[in-house]
Specification:
By secondary structure, the protein is mainly α. It contains 11 helices and no strands.
Length: 288
């Protein structure tokens, strides 16, 4: 028979023996390995981003000094950007293009999400709409610009319409694929627990298809910017694409470069906002 001194610490004191607990003790203020790894990963991402930017700038300088006729270097483009900023031209053009993109893009996404959900949830709606959807997906929005101008005039309406079409087609396909890709086991489990169709839809289908929707929104954003530039090249009185066309007539390559950089910078900023929203809304999803 064990004496009290030989009994385990738990029996003598009523508390678990610290020496027998599993796993390292985490004291207040101690950073866990996960937090340290995330911090290291963010620093690595920042350093890689800076290295990528430096490499791109170096490549640009090499091309500018390689003897290509008229190819402007970073200094010439920065000088021209300063001139366009000083007289307000760059901000005016960027504002005009951004307004067109936002209106057409938002309208396209707002309509695409419910249509994609209906197609994915109801087979009858899918069979009625999908053939037409696939048909119009094969027709580039840029090919519709001349028709839109003839039918709608040369004001803002045709430009916004083709942007709407580009964003709608990208977003509706992604939303539809997100709904049909929902694991049937999750849907059946929710129904076994007593959930009705509206509860299954809001509690299972919508969260599971959210990553697909956001990917479609990002693709639609890129398509919207490509479409607005093309539309402004054909018929516009202002905008980044319009300014590029005017600069091309006079072989003004620095101005063209400034507009290209502005389009890329604005589009990249908008894409980063969508990516941030994606991480917030899908924080439950495992990532690599």
């Amino acid at each position: 028979m064990k004496t009290p001194s030989e009994a385990p610490a738990e029996q003598r004191t009523g508390h678990p023996d610290p020496e027998r607990t599993t796993g390292p003790a985490i004291t207040k203020g101690t950073r866990t390995p996960g937090k340290k790894a995330r911090g290291t990963g963010r620093l690595t991402a920042v350093l890689l981003g800076l290295a990528s930017a430096a490499l791109g700038l170096l490549t640009w300088v090499i091309l500018a000094n390689s003897g290509i006729e008229g190819f402007p270097g970073p200094v010439a483009v920065a000088r021209r950007a300063g001139e366009l900023i000083a007289d307000g031209t760059l901000f005016t053009d960027a504002g005009a293009s951004l307004k067109r993109v936002l209106i057409g893009y938002v309208l396209g996404v707002v309509l695409a999400i419910p249509v994609g959900f209906l197609m994915g949830w109801y087979p009858v709606v899918r069979r009625l709409i999908e053939p037409w959807l696939q048909f119009f997906r094969m027709v580039p929005p840029l090919a519709i610009i001349p028709l839109a101008i003839v039918l709608m005039g040369i004001d803002e309406t045709p430009k916004i319409f083709v942007i709407f079409l580009a964003s709608f087609l990208s977003s509706v396909v992604s939303t539809f694929q997100g709904v049909v890709a929902v694991d049937v086991t999750l849907v059946n489990a929710a129904r076994v627990l007593g959930a009705r169709d509206p509860q299954v839809f809001l509690g299972v289908v919508v969260p599971a298809s959210t990553p697909f929707i956001l990917v479609g929104m990002r693709i639609g954003l890129g398509a919207s910017w490509a479409t607005v530039v093309a539309a402004e090249l054909i018929a516009a009185q202002g905008g980044l694409g319009f300014r590029m066309q005017q600069a091309g007539l006079y072989y003004d390559l620095p101005t063209i470069f400034v507009q290209l950089i502005a389009i890329g910078a604005i589009g990249l900023a908008m894409d980063r906002l969508l990516l941030l929203a994606e991480r917030r809304l899908t924080h439950w999803q495992e990532r690599r």
